[in-house]
Structure formats: structure tokens, C-alpha cells
């Protein structure tokens, strides 16, 4: 049964199989992007007839849109548990990658950044970009347990040179779904006067996250992983570094006064939102944030965990299918599982699941190359990832387990050829 507040606008459309049948599409690629919630679509269709440029227009539509945009900012802030004393900034950006690049360019003089090598590239690489203001970046090797991860962070913090330090960590891995010990890491960082930014892209669609409760200093997320469209996201957290930094982009909106010799930049959040902002994206993201109250997320997590465990138990029964895990099968996780199938490359597994069973998964290294490569069993160069979300049913899970059992035992039913870089039946 699907509850109304969770209903998605586009999800299980019928897909043709290689044998000519049509089946309901079983979407197991929520960790990449999620379909639009009906509450999000409603908020968007309300805004569409009115939207106009924000902050500058005196006309009715511009004022309504400005109000909606700022209301969206407050909603997203509430969703992320922003603090009021001192007030956290909520900056609209294009997504998590954008948010972390903005923070990398807003670091104070002489800042050391510590980042585990297990991170998604969006949180691993921005600190090393030429435009990053990090004075040094220390990558931590993969840790064999959550305790070892905290210990490695403590050691790195103790050894860090004088000056500001930022620790970047993920809240939930996009490869294994494993949940990181954010509170312990924040405590370790704060003990040494360091700050923490949390990449919550994969966590917030599954569990509530609060800056206030975790004590984290910054958090980043993407709307398209939270059942709202692409192109919108947020960086929320401590205002001081962001307020003192040069604008992320130069242009209108970020500038308060410009003459022949001088530019005065705006205060936050406009300072980092140059150009006409993505108002519809912000409204859509806010509608998703309002739908996923902490109670709704907690409830969904319980039911999703039942499905996830059914999937993991099914996979564990199949000879030759191996789940990837950094911290062991018992470690808490969100609805993501990556695995390999012995003797069949990941792209062929994914192609056969799609063409023969109507199941959409992802194959590859999931933009977390160091972590995924480390976890792959010998003989494999890539993995398959199945991620659960709104609309995932027990039938989908059983179909995936059945399909994998068949594949592992008999191989694909069809022959596949590479066309434009993809395998087609
Ligand atoms: N962090 C994590 C953990 C992710 O899974 C992703 C998306 N795969 C990102 C960051 C990047 O998000 P976006 O592509 O929306 O910027």
C-alpha cells in the first residue's frame, strides 16, 4: 500500500523486456536520482503561473516569488535543524557537488582539510581544486571499522598544523549505504577546535539530519536525491567563513554596489547566489523537505529496512553474489546495497536485469573510486548497486533476488552487444 504523502509522480511505468513482455519498472536506482513526489509536483504547479525574478521586482509576481523563495529557505533550514544563535546560513546551490565546492572556496586562510578517502568524489575532490582555499588536504586511508575511522580522525587532528581545520565526512555511503558515526566525529573534531562538514546527500532521503542535534558545522544535500528535480541543493551551516569569503560567482545578486572603481558585495545568502536563482528548484526542494518530516522519515526507515534486509538476505543466499561492505554486514545502513556476481561483469548484470526483468540498477564505481575498488572482490573491476526508495515494493525486491539467482546460476538469457557504450540485448 502506498501512503498518499509518499506518492511519486513518475515511477513504475511499464517497460518492454527483450522477450516482448511489458512489466512494471522496478526502480532500484534511487541513490542516483529519485522520481518527483506528488507534493513536490503540486508545489511546482502552484508556483508556475506566478514565478518571476526574485528580490528586485516591485510587481506582484516578483513579490510573491520572493516570498516563496525565502519561505523555501526557511523550510529547508528547518529540515536541516539550522541553529539560530549564531544564525546558520542557508545558501541555495545546484547540488551537493556545488555546495562542497562553495565551501572549499570559502575556507579561511591556512585551513587544513581532512577527508577520508572513502568519500564520494563530490566530497573528496573539491578541496584539491585549484580554486579551493585549502592550504593543505590530508586524505585518510580507508578505516576498517567506525572506531578506527574516529581514531584516524583524532590522530590527524592532533597532528594538524596550527590554524583552522575542516573535517569532511559523509553521513551515509553511496556505495554501501553504511551510516557514518557523525556525532562521534563531530565530538572528535570539536575537541580539537576543528569544524565538520557533512555530505548528507544519501542520508537525508532516509533519515532525519539536524545540524543542531549532531553539532556538525555544515551540511550539504541535493534535491534530486530527495524526490525533487535536478539543479537545486543547499549548503547550510556556520555563517562566518561564508560571510567573509569572496562571492562564489561574481555578478548581479551578489553585488550590492558597483561603480567604475569599486564593488561592494552583498551579505549572506545573496553573496553566494549570484545570477537569477533557481526559484522553482528551491520551492520544489522545500516541498520535499516539508513532506519528509522526521516522523515520516523514521517511519519510512523502518519499512524500508524490512525491504532492505529481505534483499540482503536474498542476496546472501545466492552462490556467487557478494555484497560490498566496509564495516561488516551488521553495521547500520540506509537502503543501498552494492554487490558483484561471480563470472559476470557488472555492466552485463545491469543490462540483463533491465532487459530481461525490467529492473533498473546502476553499475560502475559510483563516483567513489578508491572505496569501491578497495571493496571489490578479486577479479572484478566494477560493482552493481541497488538502492531502495519511495515506491519500492516487496515484489520488486523478490523480482531482483529471483533475477540475480537466475543470473548467477545460468547467466543472461540473451546475448548483449555494445552500442554507443551501452550493452543492449
Ligand atoms: N555525495 C554523495 C554521497 C552522493 O551520493 C552524490 C551523488 N551521487 C553526491 C555527493 C553528489 O551529488 P550531486 O551530483 O547532486 O552534486
From TrEMBL:
- What Pfam families does the record point to? Aminotran_5 (PF00266)
InterPro entries for this protein:
Aminotrans_V_dom, PyrdxlP-dep_Trfase, PyrdxlP-dep_Trfase_major, PyrdxlP-dep_Trfase_small
- Which keywords does UniProt give here? Aminotransferase, Pyridoxal phosphate, Transferase
Protein name as annotated: Aminotransferase class V-fold PLP-dependent enzyme
Signal peptide extent: none
Q: Tell me the GO molecular function terms.
A: transaminase activity
**Stretches of the chain forming a coiled coil according to its record:** none
Q: Which cofactor is essential here?
A: pyridoxal 5'-phosphate
Q: Where is the Aminotransferase class V domain?
A: 28-400
Species source reads: Nocardiopsis coralli
Q: Which Gene3D superfamilies match?
A: Aspartate Aminotransferase, domain 1 (3.90.1150.10), Type I PLP-dependent aspartate aminotransferase-like (Major domain) (3.40.640.10)
Amino acid at each position: 500500500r502506498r501512503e498518499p504523502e509518499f506518492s511519486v509522480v513518475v515511477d513504475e511505468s511499464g517497460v518492454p523486456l527483450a522477450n516482448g513482455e511489458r512489466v512494471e519498472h522496478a526502480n532500484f536506482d534511487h541513490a542516483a536520482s529519485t522520481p518527483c513526489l506528488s507534493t513536490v509536483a503540486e508545489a511546482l504547479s502552484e508556483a508556475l503561473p506566478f514565478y518571476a525574478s526574485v528580490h528586485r521586482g516591485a510587481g506582484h509576481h516578483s513579490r510573491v516569488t520572493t516570498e516563496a523563495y525565502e519561505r523555501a529557505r526557511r523550510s529547508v533550514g528547518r529540515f536541516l535543524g539550522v541553529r539560530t544563535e549564531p544564525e546558520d546560513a542557508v545558501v541555495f546551490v545546484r547540488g551537493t557537488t556545488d555546495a562542497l565546492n562553495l565551501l572549499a572556496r570559502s575556507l579561511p586562510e591556512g585551513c587544513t582539510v581532512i577527508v577520508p578517502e572513502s568519500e564520494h568524489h563530490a566530497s573528496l575532490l573539491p578541496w584539491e581544486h585549484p580554486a579551493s582555499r585549502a592550504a593543505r588536504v590530508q586524505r585518510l586511508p580507508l578505516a576498517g571499522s567506525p572506531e578506527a575511522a574516529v581514531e584516524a580522525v583524532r590522530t590527524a587532528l592532533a597532528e594538524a598544523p596550527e590554524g583552522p581545520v575542516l573535517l569532511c565526512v559523509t553521513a551515509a555511503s553511496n556505495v554501501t549505504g553504511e551510516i557514518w558515526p557523525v556525532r562521534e566525529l563531530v565530538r572528535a573534531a570539536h575537541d580539537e577546535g576543528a569544524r565538520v562538514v557533512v555530505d548528507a546527500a544519501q542520508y537525508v532521503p532516509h533519515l532525519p539530519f539536524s545540524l543542531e542535534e549532531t553539532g556538525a558545522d555544515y551540511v550539504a544535500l541535493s534535491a534530486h536525491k530527495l524526490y525533487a528535480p535536478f539543479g537545486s541543493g543547499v549548503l547550510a551551516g556556520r555563517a562566518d567563513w561564508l560571510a567573509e569569503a569572496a562571492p562564489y560567482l561574481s555578478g548581479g545578486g551578489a553585488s550590492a554596489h558597483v561603480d567604475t572603481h569599486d564593488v561592494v558585495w552583498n551579505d549572506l545568502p545573496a553573496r553566494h547566489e549570484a545570477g537569477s536563482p533557481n526559484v522553482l528548484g528551491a520551492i520544489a526542494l522545500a516541498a520535499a523537505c516539508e513532506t519528509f518530516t522526521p516522523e515520516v522519515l523514521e517511519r519510512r526507515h523502518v519499512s524500508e529496512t524490512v525491504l532492505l534486509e529481505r534483499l540482503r538476505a536474498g542476496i546472501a543466499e545466492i552462490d556467487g553474489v557478494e555484497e560490498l561492505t566496509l564495516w561488516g554486514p551488521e553495521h547500520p545502513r540506509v537502503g543501498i546495497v552494492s554487490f558483484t556476481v561471480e563470472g559476470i561483469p557488472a555492466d552485463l548484470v545491469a543490462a540483463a536485469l533491465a532487459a530481461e526483468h525490467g529492473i533498473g540498477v546502476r553499475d560502475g564505481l559510483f563516483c567513489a573510486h578508491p572505496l569501491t575498488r578497495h571493496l571489490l572482490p578479486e577479479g572484478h573491476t566494477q560493482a552493481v548497486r541497488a538502492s531502495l526508495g519511495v515506491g519500492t515494493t516487496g515484489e520488486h525486491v523478490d523480482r531482483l533476488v529471483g533475477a540475480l539467482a537466475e543470473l548467477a546460476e545460468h547467466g543472461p538469457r540473451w546475448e548483449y552487444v555494445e552500442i554507443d557504450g551501452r550493452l543492449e540485448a
